[in-house]
Amino acid sequence: AIVGVVWLKEKVSVIEWAGILMVLAGVILVSIAGGGKTAVLPAGSYLLIFFVAFSLAAAAAFLLGRVGISIEFSLALSAGLVFGLANVAAKLMMMRFEAEIGSADLFQLAAVKSILTDYPIILVVATNIIGSIFYQTAFANGRASIVASICTIVGNTVPIIAAITIFGEQVKFLHGLGIIIVLVGAFVLAIGNRQTWRRCSP
Length: 202
Hints:
Elements: H1 2-6, H2 14-33, H3 44-62, H4 71-101, H5 109-116, H6 120-140, H7 144-165, H8 173-200
Helix pairs in contact: 2-7, 2-8, 3-4, 4-5, 4-6, 4-7, 7-8
């Protein structure tokens, strides 16, 4: 956001700044809380539900433009959610690889074969491609300060939610507080973005 404002001379409203800072504060709170090294491989059904739920959320975000939300916000949100799923898929890929090989050493033929022949690699590639399409389209139709902020923060929030809900990491008070602040911040940012979009519309 700072780069967009300082170097690209973009205008970000006070409400949008408040939303960005609230979401960032929420992510920081969850990161500080940590989850310990308690992650376990999730059951297939839980993993499927998580990916379907967040895929539907990304699709819903894509359609926000029909209810008065700007393209830069809706597509950036979709991109962030999909990139977040890419991070979750990458974590799943590494956990399955370590469980199969019994080592975190990537510099061995068995490791390469394990990664390239397991299904998470397909999820990683597909989500990164789709996320990139959303991201570049959002950039082409919006402000870098808003697009980059939303995409980066949401993309980091999804793996945190996954760690707590499907990877079995310990839930702490700061986790819940941080996620609530993220949701409130996203709502504030959406309101600010909608007001800015209305002012700029002819």
